[in-house]
Amino acid sequence: MFERLSATLEEKFGQYTGHIFIMATGIVVRVLAPLIQSKSMDPAVVVVDDLGKNAISLLSGHIGGANELTQKIARIIEANPVITTATDINEVPAIDVLAMERGLVIENPEAIKTVNMAFLKREEVLLHDPFNFLANDLLNSESGICKRLMYDINNSSQQTEIKNSSCVYIDDVLSELPSKVLILRPPTLVAGIGCNRGTDSEEISTHLKEVLESQRLAPTSLKCLASIDIKSDEAGLIAVAESLDMPLIFFTSEELNQAKGIKNPSPVVEKHVGVKSVCEAAAIKASGDGTLIVPKESTKNVTVAIARIDFS
Known about the structure:
It is built from 13 helices and 14 strands. It is α/β, with parallel strands linked by helices. It starts with a helix and ends with a strand.
């Protein structure tokens, strides 16, 4: 129970992924107005009238899942689902929905409208998607004319084409792109990490960040961190994974010694730990025997290697 709806919502609004209101839409709009932030952050909001005749998707229809929740409620109570997002009523793909379904991170949500509008107008959309996350959905889509683009920063004619067209860029590589280009980050990277006992989280996270920056790799494309199982109680390493809200996977010495493609085996590590490599081997194993794209880079206490999962 609560005394004031507005006060309760101010406290609880961000704690849930969805809210269902059984009342007039106007009331909901007024109490939520001060709490709304952005389409990438707001939870789903669905409004149902007192008689259960209509279920209305009010806020965060795509990313927040309000459209899907509306359809579910409508089926349960036999109500009329009211959905007003343009892509849905025109039956064309919504790029933000496709991105979420494929586990892609939307780096610049403000560019979503440019791509979705191009779909609605049946305009050409350029697609850079070397891992084929959305190629099957978009290149042959009847709702939009998509053209495959293999992005080359040194190609001046291509840069002009990008400036004059809508574009979706799906890659784990950082590139200089016009602000209207929708950047989607695929979960393609794994960081293998080794560290001396007692290394603090700041030192580990700083080195990881520096490695990604120097190699122009997107941090939001990191899928997980990995190391050897004797580090499973390493406080600094655990804290880094928690700060990134990311899984931390551990492998036994036997598993790491099975890794293929190690570039920098270490006799010292093998002597003390029983494995030829920690960070490179862990990255390779956690990527499903993917490709080691950044061999071991070391500081005094931390080693980092990056592998790419093969999604092709």
